Each structure stands twice: as structure tokens, then as C-alpha cells.
């Protein structure tokens, strides 16, 4: 028997139809236990879509009205549903049910026989909170490393590997598969790779892509939807496409300009993978913005401190050490508040 608890609001209409078909077949067999009847009543009442599918299939199946009625009556809150189903049955002659029952049975048999050959697209969502990270190996061997406060959606099929970065920063070490392009959607941009390694970061509406191995296509898209499923359904149009090879970076901040990276730049941009932050003559406003990505402590400053420069290597988890370095080397006063917030001002 199908375990209805494994299905959620995001199930496709085809999946719900199969669940409904399974329930109808079991009801017609007449071998439901008390727990099965309660599970069926709960399944019907869980969603209007479930109710609709049961109504539709029951009309075609025939001779299950009494069983359905009894099952739904096991749940007092479903009484009105039971009465509704009975009313539907009374509007159609039993001869009509019997005629359609044979056709429906054949349809169900064909459906289940064909199921193994259907390409099922499984959606996975991974996320990490502030200060956390996650390394995950995907089904094809591709490795993803999520940085602080990141969320991604992943959907693999027989023809493509699709990911949407909703927030944060992710490193991708992609396994080559010429038959299934690896596509990452972020904002209205798309990165396409076959076998390569790169980092994507989104900060509000700015997208940065740093390629460390191989080559990627960086595409600007139109007709983006609100979810990965929308994107795959809408099939966005590519407005502009650029090739970005290893040792280069592209950012939407500079109108998708491709710039050559240096070893020092790469070290700064990948240090988080070792749990570090590297600053080299970095303005204080950028340092504080980076710290705030990893810490739940809210740090702000006086405007005249924004362009002060700082350097050093710190652990992402050691915010206090960074604050102390500012205090000792930059003549900055650290003002602490009862809620944990910090305000930086001149001495």
C-alpha cells in the first residue's frame, strides 16, 4: 500500500492520480484494515486535489461507494465528504460505472507497467545557516560546497542536471557528462558547464562567478520564473552568452565584464572553503560586510571609517579576534550593546 505520508503539497497531479488509483484498487479489493481505512480518510481530507481525484476515479470504477462511505465515516470530520460522494454516485447509473470499470482497469495496468521507464525528476533542497557550511556529493559524483547562509535547489533528470542558487555562495566541482549539461541558475543568469570547477556567489542582485578549472558559459536570460520548476517549464531565452575559462572571473556588478584573476584573488575568494577569511588591504566597509555574512552579531560603523584599510587571515568563526585586531591596530572604539550588536567609531 502506498504510504500517503511520503507525499507533500509539491506532488505533481500525476503522482496524486496514481495515489488515488492505488486507494481505489485497494477499496475495491475489500481488504482494508481499520488503520488502512483511517489512513484513507486522512488522505482524502488532506487536500482538495486528493478529494477531486477520488471523486473522479470513483465515478469510473463503480461498486466502491459503500466502502468509501464507510471509510470516510471512520473520521467524523469527513462526514460531509462522505455525503458528497454518495450524492455524486446517485447521479450516475450503475450500468455506466460497470462499462467504464473495465476501461479504467486496463488504463491503471498500463500506467503501472510503464512506470519503470518514466524519467522521474527528483527535487532536492540544501541550505545552511549563518556561520555553517555543507559539503555534499551528488548522484553523479559532482561535489558541491555550500558557504554560509546559502540555499540551492537541485533537480536531475536523464537529460540534464539543473541547480538554482537562491542565496549565498557555492563551490561546484562538476563531473563530466556530455549527455547531461550541468546548469546553474542564479537570478537571471545561467552558468553551463560540462566538467569544471567554479564558485558562484549572489549578494542581493550581484552575481559573481570565478572559474578555477575548465570553462563555463555565462548566459543572461529572459523569462525566468519564481522557482527551478518554473525555469525548466518556461525555457528561458538566452539574451547574451560569454565563455569564461579557468583563471577568470565575471561579475554582473561590472556589466558582466570578464577579468583575469590572480593567485591572491583566488585565495581570497576560496579561503572560506578552509573556514578562513583573507583580507589584503581591504576597506573596512567590505571587511564588515564579509563578517556579517558569517556572524549573527550585527556590526555597523561610522561613515568616516568605511575606507580604512585592513589586512590579515582569520577564522570565519573567530569574529572577536577580527574585532580585536581593528581595535588595536586601527584606533577604533568598539561600542557594544545589550543585544550583542557592535558599533565601530573613531577613538
Describe this structure in words.
Helix content is 35%, strand content 33%. It is globular. A hairpin with a 2-residue loop joins strand 6 and strand 7. The chain has 3 domains: 114 residues, no CATH class; 140 residues, Jelly Rolls (Sandwich), CATH 2.60.120.1440; 72 residues, Phage tail protein beta-alpha-beta fold, CATH 3.55.50.30. The protein has 10 helices and 18 strands. The N terminus is likely disordered. The chain has 347 residues and is an alpha+beta fold.
What kind of sheet is the major sheet? Answer: 13 strands, mixed
Q: What's the CATH topology label of the largest domain? A: Jelly Rolls
| Domains, number | 3
CATH architecture label name of the largest domain = Sandwich
Helix percent reads 25-40%
SSE class: alpha+beta
Q: Which CATH C-level class of the largest domain is it?
A: Mainly Beta
Mean pLDDT: 78
Task: Give me the Rg, rounded.
Answer: 28 Å
Give the number of DSSP strands: 18
**Number of DSSP helices?**
10
Strand-residue fraction? 25-35%
First and last CA, distance: 71 Å
Q: Judging from the principal axes of the Cα atoms, what is the shape?
A: globular
